[in-house]
Amino acid sequence: MRRPLFDPGDYFNVPVGLLWLGGVTLFFSGNHDTAVHVAAWAVLTVAGVFPSVGRQLIRYLRLASTTYAVTDGRVIQTSSLVRRKEKFKEPAGPADPVVTPGPGETGTITFGRLGVLAWASANFGAGTGKDREAPVILVGVGEVAK
Q1: Which one-letter DSSP state was computed for residue 97?
Q2: pLDDT, tens digit, for every residue of 50-59?
């Protein structure tokens, strides 16, 4: 299984995080007079490092601890990075699985609706029924074409 280091959102988050780090460094380069300045500099530096490096590291570790099981009745995604978490999805229904080829023989399989509106309804409670269910996304699946 191949674990991707970047996803499409990182092409925005990494440059913004680096710009944030540059701005924080320039602002605080001459303002280390008090302990409050040093504490603020440390907190704001961590806030810039996380989108630049932290998200990718956490994603990589989460995918390393994730297993998938696909049966004729459901899709099961189990992740145990910090605590064991399982997601279930009934593959039967109006949405067929969507296969997205990736590098080499790997790729992504999505069960359920995917997009900004589906994400918002799953995370912020808009919509009803199946509209509120987050899709199950299998990332780094080997021989995805099969």
Answers
A1: P
A2: 888 888 888 7
